[in-house]
């Protein structure tokens, strides 16, 4: 009796068992189909790690000489390194470290992190930071933030402090970037003639602001079974508190920041702006997924989170999705 005949006889003699096996296998197939990672853009990006260093006071030549070249020298010779690419711009150095195919991305980031920690950069330059675990095809969601009666600084503040944190906590999200608007800063605009008049230096003003803008701990006091925390609250929270900081005193008369400078709300130097639909400036949010994640699932979770965030925003603020990878994937599958 051949094998096919034995299979047929077994199936006929055990109909219930065979039927149950078919049901189980069909259910497993349907479940697997639902978990299948279908994407309109198969990610063929190489294994790469970005190293970003910010130096707002340096021009392109100084960035190249003081940051990019030392970092490239330290990153050379790593195991399974394929190539190094770099860009030196005003205030920014970016190095892309490309590894051979098959290298684990987290191993690559660990090796790069160890190398850049050994580099000593000039004082005043921020430490190098690794870019997110994402690729060039990881942009799965674009949205704009606009509001009636709000300026570009207020819109950017909402993006950075209200919208971005909860959206970044979505599973599968690598990074949420903001583009456009103004990043809020407090500016102390010194008057040189007043500094000379009062016999002060720039370093004295800087040290006074630094030392009068921090909170410190003082331990605790225990008694009668209770413990009280001792803390000095000194962080400035508005313009007036900055104006009232004392720099020095002359003949018992304190000299405040307001005596030698104007304190205003300003913004950091920006490198781009965003407009939408001819209605003026808006703020653009870019959502990146973690390398290797299911773009369809991650994008869907992000859009659902955006809907919940919208409910908590002021009535005059709207968050509108302008690019959604989910819709693109569904349209590609439908064709």
Indicate the topology.
Elements: H1 3-13, H2 15-35, E1 47-54, H3 60-75, E2 81-89, E3 92-99, H4 105-117, E4 129-130, E5 139-147, H5 152-168, E6 173-179, E7 184-190, H6 192-198, H7 202-211, E8 216-223, E9 226-232, H8 239-243, E10 246-250, E11 253-256, H9 257-260, E12 261-267, E13 274-275, E14 281-289, H10 295-312, E15 317-324, H11 325-334
Antiparallel strand pairs: 1-3, 1-4, 2-3, 5-14, 5-15, 6-14, 7-12, 8-9, 10-11, 13-14
Helix pairs in contact: 5-10
Oligomer: single chain
Mean pLDDT: 89
- What is the CA-based Rg, rounded? 29 Å
* Principal-axes shape call: elongated
Instruction: Indicate the structural class.
Output: alpha+beta
N- and C-termini, Cα separation: 48 Å
Uncertain runs are none
Question: What's the β-strand tally?
Answer: 15
Count of separate DSSP helical elements:
11
Q: How would you sum up the major sheet?
A: 5 strands, antiparallel
Estimate what percentage of residues fall within beta strands.
Answer: 25-35%
Helix share of residues?
25-40%
Query: What order do the helices and strands follow?
Result: HHEHEEHEEHEEHHEEHEEHEEEHEH
């Amino acid at each position: 009796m051949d094998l096919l005949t034995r299979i047929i006889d077994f199936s006929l003699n055990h109909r219930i068992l065979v039927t149950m096996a078919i049901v189980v296998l069909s259910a497993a197939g349907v479940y697997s189909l639902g978990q299948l990672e279908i994407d309109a853009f198969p990610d063929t990006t190489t294994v790469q790690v970005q190293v970003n260093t910010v130096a707002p006071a340096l021009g392109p030549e100084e960035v190249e000489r003081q940051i990019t070249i030392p970092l490239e020298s330290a990153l050379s010779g790593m195991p399974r390194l394929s190539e190094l690419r770099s860009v030196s711009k005003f205030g920014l150095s970016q190095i892309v470290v490309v590894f051979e195919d098959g290298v684990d991305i987290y191993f690559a980031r660990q090796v790069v992190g160890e190398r850049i920690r050994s580099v000593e950069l000039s004082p005043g330059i921020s430490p190098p930071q690794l870019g997110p675990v994402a690729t060039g095809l990881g942009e799965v969601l674009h949205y704009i933030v606009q509001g009636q009666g709000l300026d570009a600084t207020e819109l950017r503040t909402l993006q950075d402090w209200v919208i971005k944190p909860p959206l970044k906590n979505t599973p599968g999200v690598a990074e949420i970037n903001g583009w456009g608007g103004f990043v809020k800063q407090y500016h102390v605009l010194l008057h040189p003639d007043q500094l000379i008049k009062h016999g002060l230096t720039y370093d004295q003003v800087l040290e006074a602001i630094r030392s009068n803008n921090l909170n410190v701990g003082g331990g605790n006091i225990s008694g009668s079974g209770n413990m009280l925390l001792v803390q000095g609250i000194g962080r400035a929270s508005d313009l007036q508190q900055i104006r009232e900081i004392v720099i020095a005193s002359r003949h018992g008369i304190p000299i405040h920041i307001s005596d030698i400078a104007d304190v205003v709300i300003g913004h950091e130097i920006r490198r781009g702006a965003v407009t939408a639909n001819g209605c003026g400036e808006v703020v653009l949010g870019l959502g990146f997924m973690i390398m290797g994640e299911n773009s369809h699932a991650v994008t869907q979770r992000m859009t659902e989170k955006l809907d919940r965030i919208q409910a908590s925003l002021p009535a005059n603020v709207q968050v509108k999705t302008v690019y959604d990878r989910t819709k693109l994937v569904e349209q590609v599958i439908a064709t």
